[in-house]
Design brief:
Layout: H1 23-51, H2 61-86, H3 101-110, H4 113-124, E1 130-136, E2 143-149, E3 160-166, H5 181-189, H6 194-199
Antiparallel strand pairs: 1-2, 1-3
Helix pairs in contact: 1-2
The protein binds fe (ii) ion.
Residues 29, 32, 81, 166, 168, 170-171 line the site of fe (ii) ion.
Length: 205
């Protein structure tokens, strides 16, 4: 079977040697991410197959509905992992520099950068599995931090993800005990690629 038009390819990320997030964790995490890419492609293929004859037959409706419902989970699982890996790097600075546009927008939105971080870390420590994401509203340029349950519940439509932190247990369980999520969050902040975060900002005022 040929690769269907528009199917997704698994991206590679060179993250070996991060502080406090082991290569073993990353290898396992890359495999999980690869699963989301494969499942996204598979769902699209299965939906395309149902649509092949140009209609959705009544007996196909339950399968079609279930496949479509899963798109939110698999698509978001794929893209959020890509954002997460891409906003990490080896040899990162602990905070964005004074000239960082992300830092400036955080100061505008929260009064100061420290308060933005208190809120983001607070979101990351919330019980349950999911994501802490700093989103930017493209209309007001304001930054707000959001809790995303699983991968698909809580994302704000049209908002730009600037900083994405995975807080599913698989993101840190090989390095820290389940109750030590705060230590993982500290490790995450030791590896943030702030220049990538700046590049994700909405341009213009
Ligand atoms: Fe993950």
């Amino acid at each position: 079977m040929t690769t269907p038009h528009g199917s997704y390819k698994t991206q590679t990320f060179n993250l070996s040697g991060l502080r406090g997030i082991s290569d073993k964790t990353l290898e396992m995490h890359f495999k999980l991410y690869d699963g989301y890419v494969k499942q996204t492609n598979l769902l699209n293929e299965q939906i395309a197959k149902i649509l092949e004859d140009g209609k959705i037959d009544q007996e196909e409706t339950p399968a079609y509905s279930e496949l479509t419902r899963r798109l939110g989970f698999e698509y978001n699982g794929m893209v959020l992992h890509e954002h997460y890996f891409a906003n990490l790097k080896k040899g990162a600075d602990p905070e964005p520099g004074k000239s960082s546009s992300f830092r400036q927008v955080c100061e505008d939105s929260f009064g100061d950068f420290k308060t933005w971080k208190v809120d983001f870390v607070g979101v990351g420590k919330m019980r349950g599995v999911g994501w802490a994401i700093a989103y930017q509203d493209p209309r007001t340029r304001r930054v707000s931090n959001h809790w995303i349950t699983l991968h698909e519940v809580g994302n704000v439509s049209g908002f730009r993800p600037l900083l994405v932190m995975d807080v599913w247990e698989h993101a840190y369980l090989l390095d820290y005990a389940p109750a030590d999520r705060p230590k993982y969050i500290e490790a995450f902040f030791a590896n943030v690629d702030w220049s990538t975060v700046d590049q994700r900002m909405v341009s213009g005022r």
